[in-house]
Amino acid sequence: MAEHSEVAYTTADGNDYPAHEATYEGFIKLVKYGTGTVVIILILMAIFLT
Question: Which of 15, 36, 44, 50 has the fewest CB atoms within 10 Å of its CB?
Fold first, then answer.
């Protein structure tokens, strides 16, 4: 069996945590504003298409 004492991502070369965190923040903003946009579209459809 392989030894699993060290976590691979903590010892791997080339990890760019600031870029990772920036990408995650961008994703969260996209989901937040995308959800809000869909809700607004649904509300407008309910008002104008009934």
Answer: 50
